[in-house]
Specification:
This protein is α/β, with parallel strands linked by helices and 299 residues long. Helix content is 33%, strand content 21%. The chain is globular and about 45 Å long.
Length: 299
């Protein structure tokens, strides 16, 4: 009899321990499963309450398969797009000034107003840039550039990309007193297609394209007159930077021009021509950029 009582007590004790453990387990929140770091998540930095997202995007590839990158700063709904390096190694300083802007915005995220998003495409013609300086990143100087930069003006199919857009496009374009290829059709080149698709998808509020060299800010126009907003941003950039402003580029007739195609599509756009082929004139251009960001922050 004593053995039976002992066995019953042991069984009851085991049952009690089981139910106490089960209750304790149910009361304890499960430990979350660690999530691997997502390398595609935009990096964020917080400055005085403003969160600025910085992302890098491939918008297309060149003839030789090099990536064409766009760098984004800010989260606003009003996008201002800056483009460099359309003439590759011939205008390598235009790629450098775009890289300078990209680096500056990364280091100074609060420069981008809350309602604005800035996108920088430093090199639209990476094959042409690579031909002259041996890289498509911003890690080069005047010392890296080949003595003859003219071959770098064109893409790998020897097309002048700034003659390949759909405004007065011609197969044979003009550059100064030379005949250059405008491609087999408007947008025949992958580099031109890349920025066309980006613009048509994202509909930026304004576009600034850097060229060299003449030293000035020029409005865009494709037989529809200069857009009033184009005139406003041309004057804002010119007054802040000190470059002279002009409603048209009259040095010679251009066909298939990028900014004129933008005008045809009712996108305010200006060409900023650096004074020479070696200097970025960073202080002047930063002042111009800041003037445009202020303009769009108040619009």
């Amino acid at each position: 009899m004593k053995k039976i009582i002992t066995i019953i007590i042991v069984i009851l004790a085991i049952i009690a321990v089981y139910f106490i453990g089960k209750k304790s387990s149910n009361d304890t929140p499960p430990t979350p499963t660690p999530v691997a770091n997502d390398t595609n998540t935009p990096a964020t930095s917080t400055q005085t309450g403003t969160v600025t997202d910085t992302t890098k995007e491939v918008i297309g590839k060149s003839v030789e398969g090099r990536d064409i990158f766009a760098y984004h700063y800010g989260t606003g709904s009003t996008e201002v797009l800056f483009v460099g390096g359309i003439h590759g190694g011939y205008g390598w300083n235009t790629a450098l000034v775009a890289y300078q802007l990209s680096d500056y915005l990364k280091a100074n995220p609060t420069l981008v107003p809350e309602k604005v998003k800035v996108t920088v495409i430093p090199v639209l013609n990476p094959d042409g840039l690579y031909k002259i300086v041996g890289t498509t990143t911003g890690n080069f100087t005047k010392a890296n550039a080949a003595a003859d930069t003219v071959p770098g003006r064109f893409n790998a199919r020897t097309v002048d990309l700034n003659r390949n857009f759909d405004c007065d496009w011609k197969k044979d374009g003009v550059w100064q007193n030379k005949t250059v290829s405008g491609g087999t059709a408007a947008f025949s080149e992958p580099e031109s297609q890349a920025i066309r698709d980006y613009v048509e998808t994202n509909d930026p509020a304004a576009v600034v394209v850097w060229y060299s060299s003449a030293g000035g800010v020029f409005a865009s126009n494709c037989h529809g007159g200069v857009l009033s907003e184009t005139t406003e941003i041309m004057k804002a950039y010119a007054e802040a930077s000190g470059y002279p402003a002009s409603n048209s580029f009259d040095f010679y007739t251009t066909t298939g021009d990028l900014t004129n195609w933008l005008a045809r599509n009712i996108t305010p756009a200006i060409s900023v021509l650096l004074t020479n082929h070696t200097d970025t004139e960073w202080t002047k251009n930063l002042a111009g950029v800041e003037a445009l960001l202020e303009f769009y922050s108040n619009k």
